[in-house]
Amino acid sequence: MGVHDTVFLDGVDGSLSDAQVFSELMGKVGAEVERREPKVIYVPHAGDKHADHIAAYRMICHLVRKMAAPPTVYQYELWSPLAADFAVDISGVMRKKVRAIKCHESALDAFDYVATMIGLAAYRSGTILQRKGYAEAFRRTAELHKS
C-alpha cells in the first residue's frame, strides 16, 4: 500500500470507549501526533456505528483542539455512510484496496466487508463524482478549529 512507517498501539478491539483504555491510548496517540506534526489526519467519522471508531474520532478531536497549529482532519466511512463534503476517485486502486481488505481475515469472518465496501465505493462514485467507477468519501472537520 506504500506505507513505510506504522505504529501499533496494541489496543483491544471493542475497548476504546473504556475510560482507562481511552486515556492510555490518548497519551500514546498524542505522543505520536506531537512527534510527527502531521498536516492531515484521517479518522473514522463521528456518526459511525462502531464504538471504537467513535472513540477514535473523539480522541483526535480532543488532541487537535489543543494544538497551536492544528492539522486538517478528514473523517471517512467504515461501517456507516457519512454526510460527505467530497470524494476521491479510487477506480485505479480498487483492486489493490480489495486485496488489502482481504488480508484482514478475522474481520471478514464476521462480515463481508469487501462486498459492502465495493458497493459503497460504486455508490459514492455515482452520487458524488457523477461517473462510473469507485470513489472514497470524506468530510472535512472544520469545527475542530473553532474554540
CATH superfamily: LmbE-like
State the end-to-end CA separation: 36 Å
Mean pLDDT: 89
Write down how many β-strands occur, each being a DSSP E stretch of 2 or more residues: 4
Q: Provide the gyration radius in Å.
A: 16 Å
Number of domains: 1
Give, in order, the helices and strands. HEHEEHHHE
User: Structural class per helix/strand content?
Assistant: alpha+beta
**What name is given to the CATH topology?**
Rossmann fold
Explain how this protein is built.
The structure is a single chain. This protein is α+β, with helices and mostly antiparallel strands and 147 residues long. It has a single domain (19-145), classed as LmbE-like (Rossmann fold, 3-Layer(aba) Sandwich), CATH 3.40.50.10320. The chain has helices spanning 19-36, 51-65, 94-102, 105-110, 113-128; strands at residues 40-44, 72-76, 86-89, 135-140. It has a four-stranded mixed β-sheet, covered by helices on one side. Helix 2 links the parallel strand 1 (40-44) and strand 2 (72-76). Helix 1 crosses helix 2 (51-65). It is globular and about 40 Å long. The mean pLDDT is 89.
Short description:
This protein is 44% helix and 14% strand.
Secondary structure blueprint with pairings:
Elements: H1 19-36, E1 40-44, H2 51-65, E2 72-76, E3 86-89, H3 94-102, H4 105-110, H5 113-128, E4 135-140
Parallel strand pairs: 1-2
Antiparallel strand pairs: 2-4, 3-4
Helix pairs in contact: 1-2
Task: For the structure shown, list the relevant keywords.
147 residues, Rossmann fold, alpha+beta, globular, four-stranded mixed sheet
